[in-house]
Amino acid sequence: MTTTTSPQGRTERLRADRTPVRVLVVDDEAPLAELLSMALRYEGWEVRSAGDGAGAVRMARDFRPDVVILDVMLPDTDGFAVLGRLRRELSEVPVLFLTARDAVEDRIAGLTAGGDDYVTKPFSLEEVVARLRGLIRRSGTAAVRSESTLVVGDLVLDEDSHEVSRGEASIHLTATEFELLRFLMRNPRRVLSKAQILDRVWNYDFGGQANVVELYISYLRKKIDAGRSPMIHTRRGAGYLIKPGE
Known about the structure:
Blueprint: E1 2-5, E2 11-14, E3 22-26, H1 30-42, E4 46-50, H2 53-63, E5 67-71, H3 79-89, E6 95-99, H4 104-112, E7 117-120, H5 125-138, E8 143-146, E9 149-152, E10 155-158, E11 164-166, E12 169-171, H6 175-185, H7 194-202, H8 210-224, E13 232-235, E14 239-242
Parallel strand pairs: 1-8, 3-4, 3-5, 5-6, 6-7
Antiparallel strand pairs: 1-2, 9-10, 10-11, 11-12, 13-14
Helix pairs in contact: 2-3, 6-7, 6-8, 7-8
């Protein structure tokens, strides 16, 4: 995997194929699972969730996660049993146990069952993200690329020098085009709405200027995608996303 870090300290970890690291969140508390998923997506990771043990195993089989957040208390079984089934599907996937239990014996049970780390509720999102980064790093599959570089497919953006290239070709962007591309690349494969883009790039919290987003997306396409496999895509009625060209 390749690791890139933004100036704000967030770390986007990419697989060898330049796609985001995949995280599976298993928790039957829907609001908590959604909160975790949102925080992890903000880090640049691809996230799926499941609310019970059976769903977790099915999702793991299809999604092939690189790391798993696993609640011990699930409605159909406990996390220790789920871990055993996950290990049969993905023998080396790192697992972070998440639970309200804080007794020493519970921690020992979780680690003895094959878990790689343990966080008790309540917890901070920053702590969970930090623990996941550590698990990925210790798994031996992460390698540092650059602290200021964002990479999606063959598109590379250096946040410090403001240099952009695709393949061997350098691409000149205006300041606004650069900020728009940076926001897209910090969220690869994620659909971003016009309202989100306006708020982040232009600091607008209303949709009255949504046409400016369409205009600058068209500018970027001419510079990024012209004569190449498209990377910037429109999801009608939803927004825009960037992903590696096919």
